[in-house]
Amino acid sequence: SSLFVAPHLLILKTCGTTLNLLGLHRIIEIARAYCGFTTVWRCFYSRKSFFFPERQSGPHRDWRDEVTFLDSVFGAAGSAYTVGPMNRDHWLLYLTSPNAQPLLPSDASLSSDFSLSLSLPSPPALDRPSTYQDSTIEILMSHLSPEGRAPFFAPSPAPGPEASGTLSGHELGAQISHRLGIDTLFSRGETTLDSFGFEPCGYSANAVVGSGSPETNIPGGGYFTIHVTPEDGWSYASFESNIPLPQTSTADRPDIATLIRKVVGIFQPSRLSITLFVSTPPEGGIGESEAERRAWSALGTDLLGREFARKDRIGYEFDGYDLVFACFEKRG
Amino acid sequence: LSSPGPFEGPEKLLEVWFAPSASALPETSAAGAARYRPAAVQREWKGLRRVPRAVWEEMLDIVKCKVLSVVEGAEVDAYLLSE
């Protein structure tokens, strides 16, 4: 699981039976107390269909419960979508229209150490500036091959009284990252990678990017994150990134097709879904149709070669964002 | 990351945006700083990044996650979590 915090946004990505949405009220309270934010510019909540929905609790027991929970916070500003085949790898999305006014429960209470910040006046509601561009790719992979799963099991400690100590989680994570080339998905010099190998298995990594590449005019900033559950029967790996990518690969950064192929090559899934979320300029703005075209064509039938068949490609146009969703399955 | 029995890999992903970009925050301009920041607080505006780790940990307790480690990037702080 991972948490990313930027000056203006927070991303919380949690697996297992975590109670992700129950953190939302507190996040809004903290943002108000420390930064004076009284509105949420936008909220996105998404997930793939669960393998074991019966193990979830709280609002996560059912998609309808999650939507009801989010509606209780955002009222009429939210919309819920089901994307993809309902009997296979569908994907669920809830998003709000800009500048939603969150409705905090009446008994919401703040810790006493927030009191100093509470005197901050609120920033005004904001419109989307025409220059702003945001792009996030998420690759959700399942049915990993035995070779794809094997690196994510911690080695057994050597037997005998002279056995040396086992690796720490961070040491094991770094070892896995290096062996599989995760530490070179982007230029090593501009990326700070933090990875962890779990006992007896599993892996998580966060990476943050520094200053960008002046030679190619590609901006800096952004993150990528990876989480892996390698057990046979419910193997799963996810990759997500909002790092700006060039149109063609450079020494520092891959283009989007190269990045997807590298990631799929590491985890070797039999099934995967890819979502590409791209902000679009205001209607009629420069680059509107270009942004749509690039997002759509990025997930073409030949993206992963003849080894994979693309089963679906679905496009959505939201207010300010285009979403392209595609499913691939290994042939045979 | 493991637990007794099958483990649910697919994640729940929550993104809460309080402004369209960091540069869109009025506090980043000099005029904004004068309007929205108390005079006594003249440090660089970091928005949510100024929230102490302990405060996020309290929120994460509700979610049932623990912080394993943190790295800071140019624009974002990344917390690696248990579970």
Description:
With 332 residues, chain A is an alpha+beta fold. Chain A contains 6 helices and 15 strands. Chain A has helices spanning 24-35, 63-74, 146-149, 169-180, 256-267, 288-298, and strands spanning 2-6, 9-14, 42-48, 78-83, 91-96, 135-144, 191-197, 203-209, 212-213, 218-219, 223-229, 236-241, 269-279, 308-317, 321-330. In chain A, the strands form 4 sheets. In chain A, strands 7-8-11-12-6-13-15-14 form an 8-stranded antiparallel beta sheet. A 3-stranded antiparallel beta sheet of chain A has the order 3-5-4, covered by helices on one side. In chain A, strand 14 and strand 15 (321-330) form a beta hairpin. The two termini of chain A are 33 Å apart. The model of chain A is unreliable at 107-131 (pLDDT under 50). Chain B has 83 residues and is an alpha+beta fold. Chain B contains 2 helices and 3 strands; from the N terminus they run E-H-H-E-E. Chain B has helices at 30-36, 53-63, and strands at 12-17, 67-72, 77-81. In chain B, a hairpin with a 4-residue loop joins strand 2 and strand 3 (77-81). Chain B is globular, with a radius of gyration of 17 Å. Mean pLDDT of chain B is 80; it is low at 28-43. The chains are: A alpha+beta (332), B alpha+beta (83). The interface between A and B is large, with 103 and 62 residues. Strand 3 (42-48) of chain A pairs antiparallel with strand 1 of chain B.
Provide a concise account of the structure shown.
The complex is a heterodimer of chains A (332) and B (83). With 332 residues, chain A is α+β, with helices and mostly antiparallel strands. Chain A has six helices and 15 strands.
